Protein 1
Amino acid sequence: MTTATLALSADPAAIAQLADAVCAGSELGAAQGRELLEVVPGPAQDALLAGARRIRAHFHGAALKCCSILNVKAGNCSENCSYCAQASGSTATSYDKTKWLPDEDIAAAAASSAANGAGALGLVAAWKGVKEGSQLEMVCKAVEKLAANGQVRADVSLGILESQVCADRLHQAGARVYGHNIETARSFYPSICSSHSFEDRLRTVEYIKKAGMGLCSGGIFGMGESRDQRIEFIEQLRYIQPDMIPINFLNPLQGTKLDHLPVMPADEALTTLATCRFMLPDRNLMVAGGKEVVFGARLAEVLDAGINAIMVGNYLTSLGTPGEFWNEQAAARGLALTPE
Ligand code: SF4
């Protein structure tokens, strides 16, 4: 580590100046981002979080966007993503496995998402991805019904797309945003998954963008990646420019391959979120899975690190936090929960 690294990470005034520079249009370098990741609780972290909130206000105003997801096909995935309870080889039992949910269940979830304040419902399937033919048509029928229902925007997260045809057809069926996380740094990806590649994921990202769907793509911190790899991951996000970036923290569920890893300390998570805000100032930054286990009784503090979106309700295989909580906490901070 260089002297400069120590200087910035412990220098509240320099961090505040950096926030001003970001608001004025400067792009934070990867080396500076790496230095910010070293910030620990105290005056430097106070300055980092305050700077992240200033950047949020400058680029995003006071709106806190919220959305929700529904596991329409849960469990028995062919893939071996080591963080995932639904992966091949996982013995996690924290959720119910299902085949594709019937239309009534999807309609009920749309109603409950709308009641929770979410403007969109993402239909998520645990499988490798979508291929042309009967599978694509089955999915598109569900998307058409959700879009016609009109209570929430129809989003999907269906894994790796076989071709541009799949992306175009889903868009035509009414899918407005496609969720497809790149998960982590390219250099770390082989450590967490060997059944498909980082490049497979990037190819799907290209199909989504070319089809004209919005892209929701982020990943997970705390899977054993180094801090350099965290910056590599953020830089990749900066390159692909997702419309929405969900930031998850590893929830090391029993039975998953990463269940031996510790939960990230809350202060490290705050520093990581704020660093993301400094490096991705104009992107929608959402905190999604893992926030309950990382922050515990300090959960509301995720709103203090510059994020401008939140996932409400339950996750795919674990419980989340209802919209009322976020509504109250947002209001207490001068933010307004807004359907995404
Ligand atoms: S993350 Fe998705 S592709 Fe990977 S194992 Fe879980 S459900 Fe399957």
Protein 2
Amino acid sequence: MKFDTKVVRAGIKPDPTTGAIVPPMYQTATYVLPEVGRDLGFDYTRSANPTRQLMEENLAAIEGGKYGAAFASGMASVDSCMKLLKSGDHVVCSDDVYGGVSRHFDNILVNYGLSFTYVDSTDPANVEGAIKPETRMIWIETPTNPLLKITDLYAVGKIAKKHNLFYGVDSTFATPVYLRPLEYGADMVVHSTTKYISGHNQLIGGIVITNREDIFEEMRYVQKTIGAVPSPFDCWLTLLGVKTLHLRMEKHSQNGQIVAQFLENHPKVARVTYPGLESHLQHTIAKEQMSGYTGMISFELTGGIQAGKKLMNNVQLCSLAESLGAVETMITHPATMTHVDVPREEREARGLTDGLVRISVGIEDPEDIISDLKQALEKA
Ligand SMILES: Cc1ncc(COP(=O)(O)O)c(C=O)c1O
């Protein structure tokens, strides 16, 4: 099956009893056993559920992986990957990860004996340089949230292999439409399905996709044992949302490029970061590794934080909101919203200034998005 066909069809069959083209939702906690010691493939929804299984198979096929394990959020998916580790293990991690990820690593997982070194993974030598005898995993986010840094996944994959490390990639921003990290040597790919994959701001969810049976077994065990699994309804909604993923991404990318160019040429804008712009520091690797650049842009105004706040307070069509990757254009202030828990010095060292604005360009008409930004920029 070609990619676009997989998005719509992979794993989906008409309901055998009614012919319903949309798979029914199995909103059930448990399953009646025909006899002691024998079930019909399902025994309790924390362990497995037919609607969840369908979604896991569909997303795994789209990502080009054998196995998918769904969780109740992107964060629960990241956490589940960390369950592959033991106390004393060390992780080398991209330095510009989503603030919720670094909050989890630095404030929770360190209490369980894990340690983390953050490096600018745009240079693979930094990743290799941070490896210690106790390192067990490399964790890469690409493009990063919010600075849209791109890591050369193939180069880092070679390092992971050489040092026999787990290699995890958070590919939430890129989506399998534009990047499939398993093809570059990743052992597991994580998505917050809250974002582009479900696409309509309708749910919170996540998934881990892998070709490795041992990793999948562990993810299944974590699902069953800890239970941070999505509801059947959220899985069903994700299955509906994902059917248009390829079409939405095309429009997000077209609009993203138009808005990034508009911002780059605006006198009040000091700096724009968008992988589709030639000015992006990793534009070359982005071009090689990704087949599109999404709707994610970050930028700073010449007037700094005050101007940025005025812009965000004056948008009318764009929504001032956490999250990204949905059909609506959303504007976010990372320093007070998504990355508020990253200490200020660390934020500044990373280039995540108080004046940084992140925009998730939606699929509205780009003229409307630009005229909204124009009027808000006039007030900034
Ligand atoms: C790159 C990335 N990974 C993971 C997450 C966490 O996902 P969720 O909000 O679904 O827990 C986010 C959330 O913004 C994210 O941007």
